[in-house]
Design goal:
It is built from one helix and nine strands; from the N terminus they run αβββββββββ. It has one helix at residues 7-24, and strands spanning 39-49, 56-66, 78-89, 100-111, 118-135, 138-157, 162-176, 188-190, 193-202.
């Protein structure tokens, strides 16, 4: 299966979750005006080191967070995240001419207690990574891999329902090159990492 660009799928999921929240979610009467819905969606701008020697590339990200408020106190702050990234905007390196990374993943996110308007978090995700890359004279090579990642960051409240997110993520692409035997290159782990700055809206 070739995952050319996961962002359209994430957009569809975003609207489905928003519709579900609007029709199925009834906030408790005791919820204070300072609290917010468990569902949040966001979009941001990436700067990622792709794991090659070509430095950083740029792109975009979409994510959906769901943090239920009905969990016991020992699990308070535990939630789910769906995320999609597209890393395809080149910088100054000629080696990035045919390089592109797309990722769609999901997993758990744990939010620490807020400090005033700051909301720190950590996350662990797994999903499908799709990479197009040049190598040894080949014009274009492609590989799909199960990708795991971990990271964290902090959200900062800009307005009542609008938050600014700063995020760091480190990824593991195991067995890279194993489906390209013509390269005569041993399989290894590609380890991209990077940063995202974006805006998130709580419904």
């Amino acid at each position: 299966m070739r995952l050319k660009n996961p962002l359209p799928l994430a957009v569809v999921l975003l609207f489905v979750c928003a519709a579900f929240s609007a029709f199925a979610q009834a906030p408790p009467a005791a919820r204070s005006s300072a609290s917010y819905s468990p569902l949040a969606v966001g979009a941001g701008f990436n700067a990622f080191n792709t794991g090659w020697q070509d430095g950083y590339m740029l792109g975009g990200a979409l994510w959906i967070d769901y943090t239920p408020d009905i969990l016991p106190a020992s699990l308070k702050g535990l939630g789910l995240e769906i995320e999609a990234r597209d890393i395809s905007m080149k910088t100054d390196s000629k080696g990035q001419r045919s390089l592109r990374e797309d990722i769609a993943s999901g997993g758990v996110i744990y939010s620490l207690p807020r400090f005033n308007n700051i909301h720190p978090y950590g996350k662990l995700l797994i999903g499908l990574g799709s990479e197009d890359y040049p190598m040894m004279g080949y014009a274009h090579l492609h590989q799909d891999i199960t990708v795991s990642s971990f990271g964290g960051g902090a959200d900062y409240r800009l307005m009542k329902k609008v938050w600014l997110r700063g995020d760091f993520e480190y990824q593991f692409w195991p067995g890279f090159f194993q489906y390209a035997p013509a390269l005569h290159k041993p399989a290894g782990t590609l380890s991209p990492f990077g940063y995202t700055v974006g805006v998130m809206y709580h419904f």
